Amino acid sequence: MGAYEEYFEIYQEFKDSGTIRTDLPPRKDEKYFNPKMETGDWHEKMELGFKRLKRIVSWAYRYSEFYRREYDKVGVKPDDLKSFDDLQKFPWFRKGAYRKDMIERNPPFGTIPVPELLPLVRNLCRSTGTTGIQVPQFFGPLEWDVFTDMLARWIWMGGFRPGGLFQDFFPMGRGYSWGTGVWTAVQKIGGTVIPECGIIWTVDSWTSTEFISRIAKPYLEKGLPIHGCTSPSLTLKIGMYYAEKGLEPPFTGFTCLGQPISKGVRDLIKKHFKHVDFVQNAGGTTEGVVYGECKENQLHAQHHFDDCEFVEIVDPRTGEWVGPGERGEVVWTLYYHLINPYVRFSIEDVAPNEWEITCECGRTTTRHPYMYVGRTKDLFRVGDKVFLPYDLEEAITDIPEVIPSQYQVIMEDDQKIFKGIVESDKKITDELKKKINEIIEKKLGVPVQIEIVEPGKIPYMGYKLIQVSDRRTKKLEERLAEVLVPKKLWKEVVREGYLEYLMKKS
Question: 149 with 129: CB under 8 angstroms?
Answer without folding.
Answer: no
